[in-house]
Amino acid sequence: MNHTTSSLNDLNQWQQLAFCTALCERSFPNYELFCDIESIESQPARKILNKVWEYLRGQLKSTKNMEKQLEVLTDLIPNPEDYEQYGAYPAMDTLLNLQSCVQSILDSSIQDGTNIQMLTHERLLEVLELQGIDVEESELWQRQLAFESQIIELITQHGSHADMVKSLIPLAKDGGVSQLGICLDD
Amino acid sequence: MTNISRYVMTLLIQIKTLVVSLILICCASMSTADESDHHHDGTHSDDLLYLLQYKIAISELQQAFSGQSPEEQASNLAQQQTRFNKAMPLLKRYLETPESRYPNMSIYHQSLQSRGALLADYVKLLAHHSEQLQAPSKSTNN
Fold it and tell me: pTM of the entire structure?
């Protein structure tokens, strides 16, 4: 039984945002691979993700610039129907998650933790299905559940946001391997 | 079935009733809707992906509404309607996904929670859209 879903509903806005940002960070290699193949710069999106981490650390002086970033992101999100490669979908997932994070910074009533988690799970299930792998036997699936539990455990500890983010970033990067098992160093 | 599953199911039924009413109200005012430019017939995960995308886009439009001129507000409402029209068939399909689609009860349970959250969000957006539709020249901040 996956306990992270029920736990997610108990998280406050900062914690939900931290959870979604960690999922976004872990899925970022999916977007980078898409950019690599399509010769697109991934840096603009990377910079926005870094801004979200900055916000979580409490170091972002003003959120005014985030409105502009939201517009930038909207233009960056790939339309999968324009591409032949399947990778456009996971890439879109990543940027949509990022967009939701930025929007959540601008409007604290937005809490997409459950949906972003489901989106991440759905995509992984789809990839496993395409490969004919049983979810119960999938190492990637087990890793994903363990990863989420670790994130929740970390962000629900007592401590400063800055300290938590310091531990959260390397955990979220997960050695540069995405939830779909994509690693650009391969 | 656990208590939480029962709660989610009850919530889903309640929200579904409300959302169907709102969809009917909304659709009645969307005669100029353009559904032809979204031909996506993708998978379940893609439905969720597009539903989240439309939700974010509509939310952005609604946030911007109060600071706009009457002409911009009219355009804003039309853009909201276009997105609602694209989202509603996907929402219906997403809600109808059977239990058998999921590999185990845990993931199905999670899906119910996601559906509940998404429905609640769309109900909120539709209700706000309805307010803005009735008073396009008034400020209707969230």
Answer: 0.82
